[in-house]
């Protein structure tokens, strides 16, 4: 194979890869397996780590644009303070095979406080049964609480899977739920992250009541 | 040759036991040594994410916080430099799985990539694209991961179907390409490895550098003994042997599976270091 052909193949596959990555990222940000970043504590007046102490992707943000942690946490992918999942923007394959099965997840439930902490989680998705899935070893699946202390700046991960019931499928706003992060010891609320489930393929005028 | 294939199958099983849950023995050991709070399964020895992190200086801290990824990032390319991509050819569970899967189908039903397409520019294009994508708010290390999908299949084999219950457009596409189009329906079953695996591309790059150095072991051909019979090219699952006027190895695509070494009827192919190769004639086995 000539050098010219090899270069053409190289550039074509490189471009195809970038496009595939862009497509996958667009889905992950909006509709399929939506992943988000959420920090705790963001409620109350607890002392928290500075942007420099936290490090990681946050250091990319210019200092003048840093306004602290928004009430619902801070999303690197997605809108600040809120997670929106639009099942109407699913890819073709998902729409054909599993349109009503939704996965959301975070690999970055991050302790931005200055003290180590065990956390409890509560996900309310309008009463839909939710399956919990994690890579963590120290996790009490009955209490939905970590059994290890998460050091300052470090993370915990969790994925949730649920199926949208038939009666909610023809609504524009399928569900307005949220994720609560508690202190596992005191049950004090550390962060509440609103999660909105939409179906943009249904006109808002035909939607039913929220929740 | 049959003995060699049985030996490789044993290594395939060893790869499953060492890296994949519910066993993941080596991963467990490394998790224990690095005090990682995460569960032992195939995700912990991921090479795809650290490849992306190389281009993201702000993620270097993650490599430090979770040294398991750093170990993988150093060990696998290092091994490929010194001994060739033995991990790909002998222990990578998803690669070997499709290789065995492809043996179930008659060759006449399969696509033959070898000799028709040079995999090197494509796999390096994918590797480069994976890094370049980060500058366009695009990522694909986790989205198109056959390594993770294999963990779902293994879990299902042990009664845990959670990993196979939930699908996304990119995972459906990955499954179709890895298992079927580039696996079952590709001669040798290594189409995904050859064309689309960025980890394999990185190891191919290190192998090609290693085989040029004084250190690297690689498959060598004694051209004076070779009769260009084509046996090596026909058995190579990676399509890394080309047969024109003379037999040549594409070190960028070679998986170091050593099938060609075992199959050569003239004993003209060896696995050895560069400078130890006088190439004076066939050696006794």
Features:
heterodimer, A: 211 residues, alpha+beta, four-stranded mixed sheet, 3 helices, B: 285 residues, Alpha-Beta Plaits, 2 domains, two-stranded antiparallel ribbon, 4 strands, 53% helix
Please outline the helices and strands.
The complex is a heterodimer of chains A (211) and B (285).
Chain A: H1 3-30, E1 34-40, H2 51-54, E2 83-86, H3 92-97, E3 101-111, E4 119-124, E5 130-133, E6 139-140, E7 145-146, E8 155-163, E9 173-183, E10 189-198
Parallel strand pairs in A: 1-3, 2-10
Antiparallel strand pairs in A: 3-8, 4-9, 5-8, 6-7, 9-10
Chain B: H1 2-19, H2 25-34, H3 48-54, H4 60-65, H5 67-83, H6 86-91, H7 93-102, H8 119-132, H9 146-157, H10 162-165, H11 169-184, H12 191-196, H13 198-212, E1 217-221, H14 231-235, E2 241-243, E3 247-249, H15 259-263, E4 269-273
Antiparallel strand pairs in B: 1-4, 2-3
Helix pairs in contact in B: 5-13, 7-11, 8-13
Task: Give a written overview of the molecule.
- The complex is a heterodimer of chains A (211) and B (285).
- Chain A has 211 residues and is of the alpha+beta class.
- Chain A has one domain (31-206).
- Helix content of chain A is 18%, strand content 31%.
- Chain A has helices at 3-30, 51-54, 92-97; strands spanning 34-40, 83-86, 101-111, 119-124, 130-133, 139-140, 145-146, 155-163, 173-183, 189-198.
- The longest helix of chain A is centred in the N-terminal third of the chain and has 28 residues, at 3-30.
- In chain B, strands 1-4 form a two-stranded antiparallel ribbon. In chain B, strands 2-3 form a two-stranded antiparallel sheet.
- Chain B has 2 domains: 2-208, no CATH class; 218-272, Alpha-Beta Plaits (2-Layer Sandwich), CATH 3.30.70.
- Chain B has 15 helices and 4 strands.
- Chain B is globular and about 55 Å long.
- Residues 278-282 of chain B have low confidence and may be disordered.
- Chain B has 285 residues and is mainly α.
- The longest helix of chain B has 18 residues, at 2-19.
- Chain A binds chain B through residues 1, 6-7, 9-25, 27-28, 32-33, 55-57, 59-60, 90-94, 97-98, 101, 103, 131, 133-138, 148, 154, 157, 161, and chain B through 37-39, 41, 43, 56, 58-59, 61-62, 65, 118, 120-126, 128-130, 132-133, 136-140, 143-144, 162, 165-170, 172-173, 195.
């Amino acid at each position: 194979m000539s050098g010219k052909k090899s270069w053409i193949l190289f550039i074509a596959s490189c471009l195809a890869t970038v496009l595939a990555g862009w497509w996958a990222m667009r889905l992950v940000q909006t509709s399929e397996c939506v992943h988000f970043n959420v920090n705790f504590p963001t409620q109350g007046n607890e002392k928290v780590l500075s942007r420099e102490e936290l490090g990681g992707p946050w250091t990319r943000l210019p200092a003048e644009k840093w306004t602290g942690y928004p009430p619902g946490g801070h999303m690197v992918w997605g809108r600040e303070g809120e997670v929106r999942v639009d099942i109407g923007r699913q890819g073709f394959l998902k729409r054909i095979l599993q349109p009503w099965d939704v996965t959301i997840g975070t690999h970055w439930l991050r302790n931005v406080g200055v003290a180590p902490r065990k956390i409890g989680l509560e996900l309310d998705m309008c009463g839909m049964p939710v399956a919990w899935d994690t890579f963590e070893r120290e996790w009490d699946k009955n209490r939905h609480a970590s059994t290890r202390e998460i050091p300052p700046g470090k993370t915990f991960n969790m994925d949730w899977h649920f199926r949208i019931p038939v009666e909610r499928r023809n609504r524009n706003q399928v569900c307005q739920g949220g994720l609560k992060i508690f202190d596992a010891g005191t049950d004090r609320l550390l962060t509440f992250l609103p999660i909105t489930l939409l179906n943009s393929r249904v006109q808002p005028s035909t939607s039913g009541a929220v929740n | 040759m049959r003995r060699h294939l049985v030996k490789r199958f044993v290594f395939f099983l060893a790869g499953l036991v060492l890296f994949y849950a519910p066993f993941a023995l080596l991963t467990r050991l490394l998790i224990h040594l690095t005090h990682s709070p995460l569960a032992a399964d195939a995700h912990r020895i991921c090479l795809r994410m650290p490849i992306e992190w190389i281009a993201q200086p702000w993620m270097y801290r993650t490599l430090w916080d979770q040294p398991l990824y750093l170990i993988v990032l150093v060990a696998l390319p290092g091994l490929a430099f010194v001994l060739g991509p033995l991990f790909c050819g002998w222990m990578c569970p998803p690669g070997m799985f499709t290789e065995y899967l492809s043996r179930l189908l008659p060759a006449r039903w399969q696509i033959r990539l070898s000799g028709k397409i040079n995999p090197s520019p494509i796999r390096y294009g994918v590797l480069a694209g994976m890094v370049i994508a980060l500058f366009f708010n695009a990522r694909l290390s986790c989205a198109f991961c056959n390594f993770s999908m294999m963990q779902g299949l293994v879990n299902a084999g042990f009664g845990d179907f959670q990993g196979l219950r939930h699908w996304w457009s990119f995972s459906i596409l990955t499954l179709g390409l890895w298992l079927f189009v580039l696996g079952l329906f590709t001669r040798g079953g290594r189409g995904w490895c050859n064309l689309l695996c960025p980890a394999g591309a990185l190891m191919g790059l290190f192998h090609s550098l290693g085989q040029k150095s004084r250190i690297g072991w690689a498959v060598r051909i004694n051209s004076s003994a070779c009769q260009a019979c084509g046996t090596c090219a026909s058995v190579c699952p990676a399509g890394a042997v080309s047969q024109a006027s003379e037999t040549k190895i594409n070190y960028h695509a070679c998986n170091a599976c050593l099938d060609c070494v075992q199959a050569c009827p003239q004993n003209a192919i060896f696995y050895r270091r560069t400078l130890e190769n006088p190439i004076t004639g066939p050696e006794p086995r």
